[in-house]
Every structure is written in C-alpha cells, then in structure tokens.
Amino acid sequence: MALPAQRRSPDSAEQFPVGARPHEGYIPMVTNDIIALIANVALTLSFIVAVVFGITQVRAASRDRRERLTLEALRNFETRDFAELMQYINSHTIPSSSQWLAQRISKRMQDEPRKPYYEKAS
Question: pLDDT tens digits for 29-74?
C-alpha cells in the first residue's frame, strides 16, 4: 500500500532558516500587506509631523502677537501727550493724601461751576 503524497504547506521548512519554524496558523505576508503597512507607517509619521508643526506655529504666532503688542505700547509711550503728562507729573508735587486732592477738586468746582450737559453754551 502506497502512502498518499504529502501536500506541501506554504510554511514548509525550505522557506525558513534552520531552527526557525513558524507558529501554527502562520500566514506569510504578501506584497499588498507590506505596501499597506508601509502606507500606514507613512501616514502615522506625517500626522505626527503635522501636529508638531502646528504646535510650533501656534507658539510662534503667540510670540509674534506679544512682540507686536509690546512695540505698540512703546509707540504709544513716545507720543507728545504722554511726554507732556510725564513732564507735568515730574514738575508738580504729588498730593500727600486723598483728602487734599478732594479739597482741591471741590475748590475747583466752586471756582468754575459747570453748566449741566443739557444746556447749550452761549
């Protein structure tokens, strides 16, 4: 009686080096699987790069906005009105208490009574 011919499985010993046997149910990767794996890795890497790039752009925009705000504040300090106000503050004495300031304001109000806003100036 002749033995039936053995079928060769795709994971026969000729495909693997000596001592390396695949586990049961092993299916070798085909070209499509390799291409899909490479595409998935490339997609993941591009996503990570995009996130890092986005974070750096947000930080750069924040830094730029802060710099523009600082420059605008400095430009406002360089106006003639600001210089006049600084000269006034430096050349006059500052009141020692809020009572003195309130007395000064009330005296000024008595010296120059203002007309109500609804009356027209003549």
Answer: 678 888 899 999 999 999 999 999 999 999 999 999 999 999 988 8
Amino acid at 71: L
Residues 122, 107: Cα–Cα separation, whole Å = 25
Give 54's Cβ-side CA count (13 Å radius).
6
116 is written with which tokens? Answer: 């109500």
E strands, the chain, in order = none
* Cβ–Cβ under 8 Å, residues 96 and 102: no
Residue pLDDT, tens place only, 10-30: 545 455 555 556 666 666 667
Tokens 């795709």 correspond to 10
How far apart are the C-alpha atoms of 5 and 100, rounded to whole Å?
117
Nearest to 48 by CA among 56, 59, 37: 56
Residues 101/95, Cβ–Cβ less than 8 Å: yes
Which of 27, 31, 34 lies closest to 11, judged by CA? Answer: 27
Distance CA 120, CA 122 (A): 6
